Amino acid sequence: MTEPKLERPKLYKVILVNDDYTPREFVTLVLKAVFRMAEETSYRVMMTAHKMGTAVVVVCARDIAETKAKEATDLAKEAGFPLLFQTEPEE
Ligand code: TYC
Fold this sequence. Notes:
alpha+beta, 3-stranded antiparallel beta sheet, elongated, ClpS, hydrolase
């Protein structure tokens, strides 16, 4: 018999990666625009990545995480910044 229980789909983290070139202001702008973050939250997440190297932005379904990460990274690319958002499955 096959396994009867349905596995809950894995959740994915969107991770903000620090770099030396993207202005802090622009990072908070993207966090607010793409992830609907409030000013204070976006500043706190940006500063966490700035100091620690990375910061978790949100945990959600895989397709949403990937769409948002691409949207945010593309926005930065269009503006000429190397800002990067990655996704990875939660443990
Ligand atoms: N380190 C950048 C600076 O000093 C700011 C920054 C913060 C960039 C967080 C990316 O994910 C980041 N201008």
